[in-house]
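To the team - S-adenosylmethionine complex, inputs and output below.
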Amino acid sequence: MAMLENRLRKNQRILGKWARQQDIECFRVYDRDLPEYAFAIDCYGEYVQMAEYQAPSEISDEKVNARREQAIAAVQEVFGLARENIVLKSRKRQRGSQQYEVLSQSKSFFVVNEGPARLWINLKDYLDTGLFLDHRPIRQFIRENAKGKRFLNLFCYTASASVHAALGGATSTLSIDLSNTYLDWARRNFLLNKIGSKNNRLKKADCIDYLSSKYEKFDLIFLDPPTFSNSKSSSNVLDIQKDHGTLICNAMNKLERDGLLIFSTNKLNFTLESESLKKFEIRDYTKFSLGKDFQRRKIHQTWLISHKWSPQTY
Ligand SMILES: C[S@@+](CC[C@H](N)C(=O)[O-])C[C@H]1O[C@@H](n2cnc3c(N)ncnc32)[C@H](O)[C@@H]1O
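Output:
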C-alpha cells in the first residue's frame, strides 16, 4: 500500500503539473504501474475513476478484494478525495454492443474543461465516460487545424472532437453516430459550448452506409471506429482489422483533394493494410497522438492520410 501511495504521489506531482500547464483536468495518472495493483486510474476534475483489470485466475478473491480496498484507500489519501468521488469499474474485455450498455441510471453528469472546451462527463451510468482520454492530442490537433474547414466526425460518440473543431473555427461540422444516447450527449456538449446547430449537424446514421453515399465533401475527417460493431440498429457488422481498408477508401472519397483524414484505432496488435491504401499518402502519427499520460502504453495507433500530390502538408 505504501508503495502504491508513493507511486501515485510521484505520478500526480509530474502529471498534475503538466496537466495544469496544458489547461486540462482529465488525464490518466496510473496504469498498472505496479503489477499487484492492476488498475487504470483516471482523473476527471474533482473525480477519479479506477478501472480494475481482471486478475489472473490463480489469485484468490480474498486477495483481489483486499488489494482493491488498499488501492481505494491509497487514492483517497493521495488525492484527498471523499469515497463518493471515486468510481470503481471492472475492465473485463468488452465486445460489440456490450461496450455501450447502460450500467445504472444515476444521471450523474458533471462538466470538465479541456483547453477551451467544456464537456459533460458521466462516470457512473455507462462503461465509458463521455470522453476518451487517450485521444486528447488528436482533439487538440483537430482544433488547431480546423479553421475554415468542413469537418466530418464519423462514429462521433459524444462529439467531443467536433466541439474542438467548432471552437477552432471550422466553418461546419457533421457528426454521425448510431446511438440516440450519445447524439443527445453530443447535443448537450454543443449547448454547453454555445455551438450553433445550423452549421454543426448531428446525424443519426450507420457510418458504413453513410460512407457509401456520394454527396458532400469535407476538408478534415476524423475516423475512429470501434474495434467491433454489430449494433442492434444496423445490419452492418464491422471488424476493424478486416474492414478498415474499405472504410478508409470510402472515407477518402469524401475528402477534398487537399484534405486530411485522421484514422485511429484502439485495436490491440492492429496492422494497417498496405495494398488498397498505397494510392494514398500515409503518415504514422501515433507517437504524437499519445499524450504524456499515455506514452507508456500504446493504447491506440493513428495515421494521417491524404491524397497523393495533395498541395497541403500537415
Ligand atoms: C470507439 S467509439 C468512437 C469514439 C469517438 N470517435 C471519440 O473520439 O470520442 C464508438 C462509437 O461508435 C458508434 N457506432 C458503432 N457502430 C456504429 C456504426 N455502424 N455507425 C455509426 N456509429 C456507430 C457507437 O455508438 C459509439 O458512439
